[in-house]
Amino acid sequence: MADVAIVGAGQTVFSRSCGVSIRELAFDAFQEALEGLDITTSDIDASIICSAPEYDKQRSPAGLISEYLELTPKPSFYVETVCSSSSTGLRVAWSLVKSGLHKVVAVIGFQKMSELSSRDAAERMGRGADIIWESPFGLTMPAGYAMYARAHMDKYGTTEEHLAKVRVKNSHYGATNPKANYRKELSLEDILKSDMITTPLKKFDCCANADGASCVIVARGDVAKGISEKPIWVMGLGAATDTMTMAGRKQLTGLQCAQEAARQAYKMAGVKPQDIDVAEVHDCFTVSEILAYEDLGFAKPGEGAGLIEDKETYADGKIPVNVDGGLLSKGHPIGATGGSQIRTIVRQLRGQATEAQVKGAEIGLVHNIGGIGQYGNVTILRR
Amino acid sequence: MGFENFGTVSFTTEAKAADFITYLEQGKVMATRCPKCGVSYFPPKADCPSCLSGEVEWFEIKGKGKLATYTIVNYGPSGFENDAPYILALGEFEGGIQIMARLSKDIASSDIEAGMSLVVVPLKRPEGRISYEFKKG
Lengths: 383, 137
Ligand SMILES: CC(C)(COP(=O)(O)OP(=O)(O)OC[C@H]1O[C@@H](n2cnc3c(N)ncnc32)[C@H](O)[C@@H]1OP(=O)(O)O)[C@@H](O)C(=O)NCCC(=O)NCCS
Ligand SMILES: [Zn+2]
Fold this sequence. Notes:
Largest sheet of chain B: 5 strands, mixed, barrel
Bound molecules: coenzyme A, zinc ion
CATH architecture of the largest domain in chain A: 3-Layer(aba) Sandwich
Order of helices and strands of chain B: HEEEEEEEE
Strand content of chain B: 35-45%
Shape of chain B: globular
Strand order of the largest sheet of chain A: 3-2-4-7-1-8-11-10-9
CATH topology of the largest domain in chain A: Peroxisomal Thiolase, Chain A, domain 1
Number of helices of chain B: 1
Largest sheet of chain A: 9 strands, mixed
Distance between the termini of chain A: 11 Å
CATH superfamily of the largest domain in chain A: Thiolase/Chalcone synthase
Number of domains of chain A: 2
Largest interface: A-B, 41 and 39 residues
Number of helices of chain A: 13
Oligomer: heterodimer
Structural class of chain B: mainly beta
Distance between the termini of chain B: 30 Å
CATH class of the largest domain in chain A: Alpha Beta
Shape of chain A: globular
């Protein structure tokens, strides 16, 4: 049996505007993560704080959150890979525990995006590209993914309807997730007639900026069994980095960082795509979910659209994906997102999902991407 | 001179690779190549991490490329609102060089097609700003 486990996972409600400070947001997620565990704050040996910089004014948030949660004098530090920061945090926590340095580590992700307008946030995210060579052209996150979408449509015949069907599914499940910002079912028509943001992506093909926090508690196997009734085991971890620039990309119909991270994670876990019972994938845009189907091996290259067309990624399909509503319904508070995806899979594997519970789910997968496919993390968990 | 007038909004100035701007002013879009190991770089690197040499040479990107993908951006981020709509594109050129730039305003959106022939040329923008863009090849 794997010897590093997740013993607790929590998140705040993701909202357009939380009305509290980042330390208070972090507290809410921390509180939910510790619920039902036989430990107290003083049992946590280290904390890893994850977010993307420049959405709020606080510099060095690790110290701040550590003080507020009374995690001092234990070590605390900051980890960042933009949108995939908190799954990178999990990777670091795993290493700290596996190495024997620590027994229990908290991974806390947060983002308060409401301090900025959507256009200002888009400018910050645009600087998450290469600021000398590509940001000056007005490259944005949606524009980068839109170029992948166009290439996929041209090569494989994927259509705007296929993309929209991803949001139809995710809005269906988001409607039942009390932590999601958008809880309204959207029709194909609603999505297709929403404003064009960057062709072929429309407003409802995009995730929304949000405020939120997440927390994952990681523990050494023997400790985990003592403090949690249902530890969830970390079976596989994969991570990869692609070029910062779009100019450097070798493939425009899939994310190579995700393909490589998936290869590593499957190998480490000793499982195959068809062994996965439930998955959370990084649907920052509808097209991202279709790319993920292929990059993770749920569909062959070019056949991702068929999977959503045949409803195979619904809860009762071949491979349920984002049955908590995904980023598209929850909202995407950058640094909190990975932890929220992990929380969903932990609850699925424990049989505790309040949204669509996949019956008997044993093995789950989390795919969390940073930027326009710059950073990819794939994590495989088992009950 | 550095990158202070490059593109719509520039975010930094100094770089060893700033000779790129001098060439751009002279009407040339350049890439770098390492004379030792032959690797070429676009965006240009002033150093060669492949063989750890700090000596690279500049060469002009000539000839025709192909449109690989594009998007018409309607939603411009802060600082770019007045440019929208603008078309971002990736073009593939000889020798494995791929470039991201905007498509020239004189290409009608109905003419845009994957695989269409492109050239990359310098673009003088208002207020002394400079960039490069794709035109029909
Ligand atoms: C799509 C986008 C450009 C729309 O921005 P906008 O039109 O300026 O939207 P605003 O922030 O002004 O919000 C206006 C309304 O639209 C809603 N809205 C905004 N984005 C939405 C989305 N993606 N889905 C559904 N509703 C959305 C807001 O809730 C708000 O509704 P309300 O007034 O009822 O609360 C913006 O959501 C965006 O940039 N998304 C992508 C974020 C991103 O790139 N993240 C990183 C991904 S890797
Ligand atoms: Zn060299």
